[in-house]
Amino acid sequence: MLALDLIRPLCLVTLLILVPSIGLAQQGQPSIQQLLQEPFLDDYYSNVVYGYEIVTDTQNHASRYVGNSLNCSNCHLQAGTQQEALPLNVAGMYPKWRAKNGKRNGIGLRIRECFLYSLDGIMPPEDAPEVLAISAYISYLSQGQIMGAEPEGRGVPTLPDTGYDPNPATGRAVYLEQCASCHGAQGEGVAGMPPVWGLNSYNKGAGMHDIREAAGFIWANMPLGNGKSLTHQQALDVSAYLNLQIRPSDPRDSKFLKLLEHLIN
Amino acid sequence: MIRTYLREATPSFAWRNRLGNWRTEIFAGLVGAILVIPQGITFAYLAGLQPEYGLYCAIFVTLFCSVFGSSSMMSGPNTAVAILIGTAVLPLAGRGSPVYIDFVFLLCLMVGAIQLLFWLMRGARIFQYLSPAAISGISAGAGFLIIMASLDSILDLSTFKTTFFYEKIYVIVSDARDLVNPYSLFIGLCTIAGGYIGRRFSPRFFIIIAVTTGYLSGLLVAFVWPQPVTELEYLGRMPIEWLPLHLPNINMEYLMMSTLLIPYAITIAFIGLAQSLVIVRELKMETEQDINLDKEVYAQGLANLLAPFFSSFAGAGSFNRTKANQSLGATTPFSGIASAGFVLVLITFLGPILTYMPMAAMAGTLFIVGADMIKWRDIKHYAQVRAELVIYLATFISIMFFGLATGVVVAVFLSVSVFMLRISQLELSVEPIESGILLKVKGALFYASLAHLTEKFHSHVGKNLTVDLQFTTHIDQSAVDFFIRESRNMAAQGVRLTLLINEKQGYFLKKMGANSDIELVAV
């Protein structure tokens, strides 16, 4: 009984301390909308806003290194704040080793590779203002995350094994029924929606060119605003269909070796 | 007075009458435009900005300077100005970030305003005191800084920062295998080799040959090895607008921080005008253009003041483009206006090609530009006079160790002090005459030169002195006080001081209170 009597005031005190501190933590960081209205920003927040502008409108704010007509926010939905749609609050996960390039990757290299593969452009230099601004924006979004721990809803969901191989033919039917109204029958993208194949889309080195990755993204988020309405198998089929289409070549391939192969064959 | 200012402040277009051969002018403008494109891009890199800002500088600063000026000088992106912008703003914000760009524009506004202030105070004449040795020293020092900056991109050391150049060289040499990117080095070396071989065939366009060689070797490297392997830096697509209007961002916070920029603004204004005026003065001597130095100061100041409104940073006169312009036979500001137009057109069409320009090729051209600024001929030339050599070397070394801004201050200080030392030396000759001793004084008699005269006076105590002041250029109050004091001493010893003077000096001496102890003899 005595213990219970003690616990109750203790809980109250803890609550009294915790509640305002949670409130403070939320107040600690101004929202992007507040930042956009601010007339003067310091170096960090101006970079955050610049990073936000790049992510939402890559074509106009970072056109220097972009080779196709995509924006970052085409995959990182809601400017990288939506869970299960490749959210950008991942600063605490880096640096980490990645199999893709066999190196210890800092957040900078990760961003630069996004320009090279998903945006089919040029890898910016390490100290490019665009890269620094996106890093600032990512660390702004990552405030409050635990270092080294996976944030909730990171990346895209991994689909369970359906027991069937993905079938591009059924994928084509699903695509024409569900996706073609926005992305076009030829995958060219209509009315501001991103092209999903063709020379204006991501190249063969991009993460989206992986069937499972793309299927997870499609299942969780597509059709836009009506995510998780497709079955797992439908998402895999559409993903396989996209994977077969024409798109820019993998920038990791040497054009010289390709030519040699072509000549020898 | 106000009418003079107004006449200088409005574009005169008096050169229209001399515009006999407009085809020559337009061709010279085209050549200037081709030359300025690599310069604009690389100097923007030196200033820590995106390349398009350098091209805007090549368009708008050139345009305004030619419209408001009176000479065929080509203004535009300038090495020393670009380096100084970089050193001034880098401590305040990250390279190329939005705040950085705001501060650069603020700095350029300040530079333009200071240069206009120079114009209002008729400051063109101050720059005559900067000795040619100092200007060559500054140029050589800037060349050294450019070579060091170009190494960053040639060896691909983008995140590698050191304070002193020897530190950088030491780290590069001791850690070459890990630090140096061989692909980047290959392209850089190709560019430099292309430049030096190309110079034998075409001394005027060798920079273009160098850039082309670098670009082609870059294509070759990219053909064999993909970018994830080479990790080469490319220029990227430049978002060029035809009219990049931009309102500089000015608010209280910026203005409070901008006090840190004021010393740099003064240095940039000074060094920019000094270079422009050296060029203009040379043009005035060598050609028959009707050049007004004050109008050129105004044009440069106004161009720099307007530059931030067109997304461009400050510039100054360019030696090599003006020389090319002159050798092609351009004699009016029209070539500058044509050059600005051609840059705009060329960039619009070249833009897609330039996307895959490796930064190492650009840095290779920077290396050549920097190496050209350190002239062995200059060192030999100034080695003949000790004072000049001291100014040259001291300027060069202080730029090497302490940066361009300090170097400029050292150069100004040294050239003024050498000038003062020279001017404070009196030429004295002593002749015995019947009444005592005749002392002939040549030079300016003022507080700094009195010590010399005092010695002579004290070595002839107790004799009648006659001082011949006819060849003295200037007498100041302390000299008059000196004569009065000495004459009183001499009167106490029973001897007299006689001054041989002209009418103007006599009037001045009487006004300053020369009394009956001095015998004034008008000649």
In short:
The complex is a heterodimer of chains A (about 260) and B (about 525). Chain A has about 260 residues and is mainly α. Chain A has eleven helices and two strands, in the order αααααββαααααα.
Could you please describe the fold and organization of this structure?
- The complex is a heterodimer of chains A (265) and B (523).
- Chain A is mostly helical and 265 residues long.
- Chain A has helices spanning 2-27, 32-37, 43-56, 58-61, 77-80, 107-116, 129-141, 168-183, 211-221, 232-244, 255-264; strands at residues 96-98, 103-105.
- Among the domains of chain A are: 37-141, Cytochrome Bc1 Complex, Chain D, domain 2 (Orthogonal Bundle); 168-244, Cytochrome c-like domain (Cytochrome Bc1 Complex, Chain D, domain 2).
- Chain A is built from eleven helices and two strands, in the order αααααββαααααα.
- In chain A, strands 1-2 form a two-stranded antiparallel ribbon.
- In chain A, α8 (168-183) crosses α10 (232-244).
- The longest helix of chain A has 26 residues, at 2-27.
- The termini of chain A are far apart.
- Chain B has 523 residues and is α/β, with parallel strands linked by helices.
- Chain B folds into two domains: 20-418, no CATH class; 427-522, 2-Layer Sandwich (Transcription Regulator spoIIAA).
- Chain B has helices at 2-9, 22-46, 51-68, 79-89, 98-120, 132-154, 165-174, 176-179, 182-201, 206-224, 227-230, 252-257, 262-286, 293-306, 319-327, 334-354, 359-373, 376-382, 386-402, 404-423, 450-458, 477-493, 503-511; strands spanning 75-76, 316-317, 427-433, 436-445, 465-468, 472-475, 497-501, 518-522.
- Chain B starts with a helix and ends with a strand.
- The interface between A and B is medium-sized, with 34 and 34 residues.
Strand and helix layout:
The complex is a heterodimer of chains A (265) and B (523).
Chain A: H1 2-27, H2 32-37, H3 43-56, H4 58-61, H5 77-80, E1 96-98, E2 103-105, H6 107-116, H7 129-141, H8 168-183, H9 211-221, H10 232-244, H11 255-264
Antiparallel strand pairs in A: 1-2
Helix pairs in contact in A: 3-7, 6-7, 8-10, 9-10
Chain B: H1 2-9, H2 22-46, H3 51-68, E1 75-76, H4 79-89, H5 98-120, H6 132-154, H7 165-174, H8 176-179, H9 182-201, H10 206-224, H11 227-230, H12 252-257, H13 262-286, H14 293-306, E2 316-317, H15 319-327, H16 334-354, H17 359-373, H18 376-382, H19 386-402, H20 404-423, E3 427-433, E4 436-445, H21 450-458, E5 465-468, E6 472-475, H22 477-493, E7 497-501, H23 503-511, E8 518-522
Parallel strand pairs in B: 4-5, 4-6, 5-7, 7-8
Antiparallel strand pairs in B: 1-2, 3-4
Helix pairs in contact in B: 2-3, 2-4, 2-15, 2-16, 2-17, 3-14, 3-16, 4-13, 5-13, 5-14, 6-17, 6-19, 6-20, 9-10, 9-17, 10-17, 13-14, 19-20
